[in-house]
Amino acid sequence: MPRGVAIRAAEVATGERVPAVPRDAATLVLLRPGSPDSSDFEVLLLCRTRAMDFAPGAHVFPGGSVDPDDADVVAAAVRETFEECGVRVDAADLVPWSRWITPVVSDRRFDTWFFVAALPPDSPPDMGTAEVSGAESDAAEWLTPVAALDAARAGRITLLPPTAVTLASLTMFTGIDDVLAQHRTITPLMPSVVVEDGKPWLELPELPDGVEYPL
């Protein structure tokens, strides 16, 4: 991690720096059927522009901060997904999946709810990739969770830990119906930063449901 993180971690530990308050945020994992001859399913990943302050160049799910006009995180997930890739989903179809909080040493922090939902069945084949918002993302692609993780291991794409863990958790299911039938207990997960010999390391939280870190 950048050396500046070690300085911030030390300042937080000594009380010299007050941790930023996390902003409420939401993200949506869109699912669609994969190849016709299998039960595979694909997820939509957006590639953030290099000009973004937060996670430039990373592959992420559609989502963003909760606006004052949003009723809650579900409304934010629906709105952000439509704004970023043109997909409009029904709020009633969203299934809570996980919740991640940015480490306390970060300058910008988010308390993000992850939801899953199926792509509406009447959507055209290129839905989600044809209307990518150039303000935050400059590309989009549908990948199976396994293919996305393989691409990250090969260095072709970049995944943040919450995205990678979400993809890994989805590999445990055989189809979209199985995913949407889940009733998960949502426990907030927050990585922390530890400093050893002046070098900062990201310490990841223990995961529920037997999921392991894939990268």
SSE layout and pairing:
Blueprint: H1 3-14, E1 23-33, E2 41-48, E3 59-60, E4 63-65, H2 73-85, E5 95-101, E6 110-118, E7 137-143, H3 145-153, H4 161-170, H5 176-180, E8 192-196, E9 199-203
Parallel strand pairs: 1-6
Antiparallel strand pairs: 1-2, 1-4, 2-3, 2-7, 5-6, 8-9
Helix pairs in contact: 3-4
Describe the structure.
The chain is of the alpha+beta class and 215 residues long. The chain has a single domain (21-183), classed as Nucleoside Triphosphate Pyrophosphohydrolase (Alpha-Beta Complex). 23% of the residues lie in helices and 27% in strands. The chain has five helices and nine strands; from the N terminus they run αββββαβββαααββ. It has helices at residues 3-14, 73-85, 145-153, 161-170, 176-180; strands spanning 23-33, 41-48, 59-60, 63-65, 95-101, 110-118, 137-143, 192-196, 199-203. The strands form two sheets. Strands 1, 2, 3, 4, 5, 6 and 7 form a seven-stranded mixed sheet that branches. It has a two-stranded antiparallel ribbon with strand order 8-9. A hairpin with an 8-residue loop joins β5 and β6 (110-118). α3 (145-153) packs across α4 (161-170). The radius of gyration is 17 Å and the shape is globular. The two termini are 16 Å apart. The relative contact order is 0.21.
